[in-house]
Amino acid sequence: MKEVYINKISKYLPNRPISNDEMEEKLGIINGKTSKGRRIVLRNNQIKTRYYAIDDNGNITHNNAQLAKEAIMGLCDDDFKIEDIQLLSCGTSSPDQMLPSHAAMVHGFLKNGNIEINSPSGACCSGMNALKYGYLSVKSGQTENAVCTGSERASTWIKSQIFEDELKYLETLEDNPILAFNKDFLRWMLSDGAGAFLLENIPKGNNALKIEWMEGYSYAHEMEACMYAGGDKMEDGFLKPWSEYPSHEWSKKSIFAIKQDVKLLGENILVKGVDSLKKAIEKHNVKPENIDYYLPHISSYYFKDNLYKEMVAQGVEIPWENWFMNLSKVGNVGAGSIYIMLEELVNSGKLKKGETILLSVPESARFSYAYALLTVC
């Protein structure tokens, strides 16, 4: 088995940062009324700015695959050219289409010859699953390098036009139609962007990070869907897919909109998260107090204090001073968040040889969690 190193990290955030007061202008006002939930959600998540692949004239500037391609180009220079990529592994929650795969579309934009591609599906953990595929490929000697990405273009999934037909339909049923909170909630949470890692089997440069191990855990065997798109949840928790609805109901029910069961999220995301964290660090005999940098992907600062309290309750407390996050500046970029977070930490100049970094990514879709321990070389 080979050792595996993250030798380069790149990010791509489209256009300019968007403030809280500009969000509704960018995404559109639904049914002529400003959202009642917007200020509550923003007050809780404490995100100040985020990025959208939408310019100031309302034009779409990039699709998801193009965002990932731009992040990958940031890895390339005279020492590592785009034609040197042996494996491309791309994760996202918001692919541009159901088929072809996301990685195939990214490869199509790169135009860099025959390479192996991989497209893990899912939500936030898809970015970590993309990383693990590349990690295992390089570790096993199948390839000498791998480029892994996490990216999202959520903005077009949450624009007002997605919900217009549903609101028109509701107007025929009631006097005061409003968008359900499980759909409105995510409009003020999600952001666009992409991050990319270059993995190689020897360390290079001044900021190489050795991947010590990666672990993943799913709780789908005991939990129903919490965040979903392309279907609707029945009262018994069964997720009915879009393909079982007549086409005229797709827009009436906003079937393809992304939705969040907020109650289920609040009751389980932290408890299951710390349970999985405990499993991972105990398996590898890691003491939480010895982790120099803890990078938790959280969707909202609302969860930060309670995550810490749950760590204390389960005996895996990581000291506050070792936490590193950039959610307030870049927003929740889903599968891309952990890439963008690590890029900022590496470029901060803070890292010292021998320090450890724990990447922690939850996924509320049906409660999955992924972890990676890195050492600064």
Summarize the structure in words.
The chain has 377 residues and is α+β, with helices and mostly antiparallel strands. The protein has a domain at 5-208: Peroxisomal Thiolase, Chain A, domain 1 (3-Layer(aba) Sandwich), CATH 3.40.47.10. Helix content is 31%, strand content 21%. It has twelve helices and 15 strands. A nine-stranded mixed sheet has the order 5-4-6-7-1-8-15-14-13, with helices on both faces. A two-stranded antiparallel sheet has the order 2-3. Strands 9-12 form a two-stranded antiparallel ribbon. Helix 3 crosses helix 4 (102-110) and helix 9 packs across helix 10 (304-313). The longest helix has 22 residues, at 262-283. It is globular. The two termini are 19 Å apart. The mean pLDDT is 94.
Note the main attributes of this structure.
Peroxisomal Thiolase, Chain A, domain 1, globular, about 375 residues, alpha+beta, 12 helices, about 20% strand, nine-stranded mixed sheet
SSE order and pairing:
Elements: E1 5-12, E2 18-19, H1 23-27, H2 38-45, E3 49-50, H3 64-73, E4 87-92, H4 102-110, E5 116-118, H5 125-140, E6 145-152, H6 164-171, H7 181-187, E7 193-200, E8 209-218, E9 227-228, E10 231-233, E11 239-241, H8 247-252, E12 259-260, H9 262-283, E13 293-296, H10 304-313, H11 327-330, H12 337-346, E14 356-363, E15 368-376
Parallel strand pairs: 4-5, 4-6, 13-14
Antiparallel strand pairs: 1-7, 1-8, 2-3, 6-7, 8-15, 9-12, 10-11, 14-15
Helix pairs in contact: 3-4, 9-10
Domain Beta-ketoacyl synthase-like N-terminal: 120-201
Organism: Mariniflexile gromovii
Domain Beta-ketoacyl-[acyl-carrier-protein] synthase III C-terminal: 282-360
